[in-house]
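Many introductory courses stop at the sequence. We go one step further.
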Amino acid sequence: MHTSSAPVWTASTLSEALSLRDAHPEATVLAGGTDLMVYVESGSMTLEGVLNLWGCADLGGIEQTSEGVRIGAMSTWRDVRASTLMPDALRECAATVGAAQIQNRGTVGGNIVNGSPAGDSLPLWLALDAQFEVASVDGSRRIAASEFWTGYRQNAMSANELLIAVHIAPVDGDMLHFRKVGTRMAQAISKVVLGGRVRRENGQIVEARVALGSVAATPIRLPSVESALVAGAGIEASAHVSQDITPIDDIRSTSDYRMSVAK
C-alpha cells in the first residue's frame, strides 16, 4: 500500500477554498476522495499537495432557482438520490454509482472534474444541456457541459478555478433516459453509458440530445443520431451511431461490443 506525505490544506468555506486554490494551483482537489484515494494507494498518482473541500458546507445543497435547479458541487450521490428536485433519470444514475459507501462520499463535482469517459453522470449532463459554474478569486463564470471536457480527463477550467455548482433546467414533458451497461448489474464501471433526452410537440420529436460515455476519450454527444431523431427516423436513428463514435478495445470491453451496445 502506498501513502502520501504531501501537505494538505483544508477549507471550511467557499471563500477559504478559492483563496487556497489561488495560492496552491498545483494542489490536487479532494472532494469525496473515492477515486483519489484509490490512485494514491495504488501508487498511480504522486501528490504535490491536497486541497480538501469535504468540510465546505456551502459547496453542497440542491435547490430550486428561478431558472431551474442548482446542484452544489459537493452534493453526494446520496443527496441526489434523496432529492425530489432531481429528474428520475439522475436519481437512477446516482443509484448506480458504486455501493452505499461510495454514494455517501462520492460527489457530483468530483465525478465531473475527474472527467473519466466512463463517469456515470457525464452523458446526462450533456443531455440536459447543463451549465457548470466555476469560480476563482477573480469571480465566477459558467461553462456549458458540451464545452467542458477538452480531452482525456482534461477540462476547460483554469488552474485557479473550482467547480462550485451544476445548473440544469429540466422541462416538464421532456423524456430523459439513463442506461448503464457494465460487467455486472451493480457496482460496475460502465462499458457503455447513455444519457438521452427528447422533447415532443404534437407527437413529433422537435429536439433530441443523445450522449454516450466509455466510447471516446471524453463523454460525447451524437449529432447524427440527434438529427435523425428530429427528422423522424425513430428507432432507425441507431444506424447513425457509427457516424458519431469510434470506440476502442481496452481492459473492460471491445470496440465491437461497445458499438453494438451503443446502437
